Structure formats: structure tokens, C-alpha cells
Amino acid sequence: MGARLGSAVGGRSRRGDDDLVETHEINVTPFIDVMLVLLIIFMVAAPLATVDLGVDLPASAVEPQPRPDKPVFVTVKPDLTVAVGEDVIARGTLTSTLDGATNGRKDERIFLRADKAVSYGDLMEVMNLLRNAGYLKIALVGLDGRS
Asked: What's the pLDDT tens digit per position in 121-136?
């Protein structure tokens, strides 16, 4: 009975029909190799995908739009004081001052300008004040950068 079943030597059975013995194991080595190569590619490519550029945004090369008859300017000065038109105001009174300048029309375009020394976060704070006041049409004013 033992001779009839035979034992597998070198992947073949001792029976005369030369059938190969099936192995039920998965070779994961190529899979691991591919994963390691992909990991290295992503580790090299990820730092290249980030943007790390210094920007100086005040100049613009766009054709200027026609100016309204009485534009409303909100200015952020280098000392972070806010002015509506030519009048310096407290930030808490920005809503009431704009309501007076626009006659209560919230759909009027507000022209926001800021000094180069004003940080982006401080400019965004003033934009949030304008948004909270209901003024959603905000135009940023810059220098004409066309040569």
C-alpha cells in the first residue's frame, strides 16, 4: 500500500503517469517587490508635488475694468488700521460705515486694497468682516503691472 501511493520527489510523484504535484502556496515576493518600488516612487514624488514659492501679488497684468461713478474703497494700512474711503474707522464700526457709504445696498462691489506689508492673514480677516457684514462682491485692487 505504501509503494502504491508513492512519495513525491522533486515535485513529481513516483507513479508512472508523471503528474505534477500541485502546490497551494502563493509566491508573494514579486508582490512585495512591486509595493516597495511604488513606495519609493511616492516617497520621492510627494515632496516635489508641494508648492513652496514666495509670492509678491500686488501687481496685475489684467486689463482694468471700468470704474463705477462712486466706488467704495476699504483700505488696510500697514499698521492694520482700516479706512473706508478716506476716513479711518474702528473695525467694529465697519458694517455701519459701509451701510452708510453704499446706502444699504449689499450687492454693491467693494474695492479692497492693502499695503504690501499687510500679511495675508490680516487681509483675510478684513475680508471675513466684509462677508459677515453681507458684502459678497469684493474686488482686490493692485498696481498695473503691464509694461
From this structure: 988 999 999 899 888 8
